[in-house]
């Protein structure tokens, strides 16, 4: 029986013909990396290959590593196997990896979204025979409103809080969500203050993308200076002593999980805005259809339910276990998304 072009092993997704791994979760000699989130780009590999915009991100997160940057669509031949990186639209520098060998084509999507956020390179459909897809929000209940509508709500919330003399605290992951929010927040309302973890990532990304001006919060930042403005903080800051200093305030989270009834109450926040860096149900189905893939491998998220639906519609779909996390329902210190 012919071995699959990509196999799921205890170390990660393995291409035996090229002897390389894609987003491995255990240390390997050579790793092709889709993007900079910690569940996809881990420390300890001998060599990293990724899109050049992701190079400064993973160097910031992983330290002194051996890394090679490539351009979109650039062909990389390893032992006769052709690898190419194409935009995933998830965060800055995020990629899908196309793998071609002896006429067979697989695409590993990593994490992706098809809505153009105006900040990262938009998602590009890549034709293939087998498509490996995430299923973070692979349920029909997840249906995103257009980004412009959600941001109108967020900016209105900030303006209303400012009029009442309250600070607006908005939670978003330090890599990806925070920069997307910065790109879309209305700076005419007031000043945007940032938690150190977010500002550190902003400093890495400012040479690559245009971001709104921000003020880093330090030990010397006065409470009265912040009042009425907006504080952008990672989810791990929720409930911290750092946060309590900035009261009176209202809190909000920008996440796809806010579509779940009770998610806001579970997180003990005042407002929830449905804004995700992943596909919703219909976007997943449209993107999979557009690839022309006959076989679909479903990974992290609602993979079992999503694969069952795909099989009912004529795809050859199955699930595999990985160590990818997607967008975490809980606010964690790892800031994986």
Automatic annotation (TrEMBL):
Entry keyword set: Ligase
Superkingdom to which the source organism belongs: Bacteria
InterPro entries: MBL, RibonucZ/Hydroxyglut_hydro, Xnuc_lig_assoc
Record flagged with keyword Ligase: yes
Gene Ontology molecular functions: ligase activity; RNA endonuclease activity
Keyword Ligase among record annotations: yes
Protein's UniProt name: DNA ligase-associated DEXH box helicase
Upper lineage: Bacteria, Pseudomonadati, Bacteroidota, Flavobacteriia, Flavobacteriales
């Amino acid at each position: 029986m012919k071995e699959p072009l990509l196999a799921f092993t205890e170390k990660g997704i393995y291409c035996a013909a090229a002897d390389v791994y894609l987003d491995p979760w255990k240390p390997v000699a050579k790793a092709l990396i889709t993007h900079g989130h910690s569940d996809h780009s881990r420390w300890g590999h001998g060599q990293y290959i990724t899109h050049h915009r992701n190079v400064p991100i993973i160097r910031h997160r992983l330290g002194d590593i051996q890394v090679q940057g490539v351009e979109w669509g650039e062909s990389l031949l390893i032992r006769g196997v052709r690898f190419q990186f194409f935009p995933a639209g998830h965060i800055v520098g995020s990629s899908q990896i196309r793998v071609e060998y002896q006429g067979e084509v697989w695409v590993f999507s990593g994490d992706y979204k098809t809505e153009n956020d105006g900040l990262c390179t938009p998602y590009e459909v890549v034709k293939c025979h087998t498509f490996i897809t995430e299923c973070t929000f692979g349920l029909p209940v997840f249906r995103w409103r257009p980004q412009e509508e959600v941001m109108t709500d967020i900016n209105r919330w900030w303006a209303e809080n400012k009029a009442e003399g309250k600070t607006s605290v908005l939670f978003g992951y330090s890599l990806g969500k925070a920069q997307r929010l910065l790109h879309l927040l209305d700076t005419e309302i007031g000043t945007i203050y940032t938690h150190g973890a977010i500002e550190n990532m902003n400093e890495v990304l400012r040479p690559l993308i245009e971001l709104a001006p921000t003020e880093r919060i330090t030990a010397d930042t006065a409470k009265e200076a912040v009042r009425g403005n907006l504080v952008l903080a990672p989810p791990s800051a929720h409930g911290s002593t750092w946060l309590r200093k900035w009261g009176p305030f209202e809190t909000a989270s920008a996440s796809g999980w806010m579509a779940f009834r009770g998610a806001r109450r579970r997180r003990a926040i005042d407002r929830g805005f449905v804004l995700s860096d992943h596909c919703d149900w219909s976007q997943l189905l449209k993107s999979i259809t557009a690839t022309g893939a006959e076989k679909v491998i479903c990974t992290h998220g609602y993979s079992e339910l999503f694969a069952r639906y795909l099989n009912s519609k004529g795809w050859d779909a199955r699930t595999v276990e990985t160590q990818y996390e997607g967008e975490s329902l809980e606010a964690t210190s790892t800031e994986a998304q």
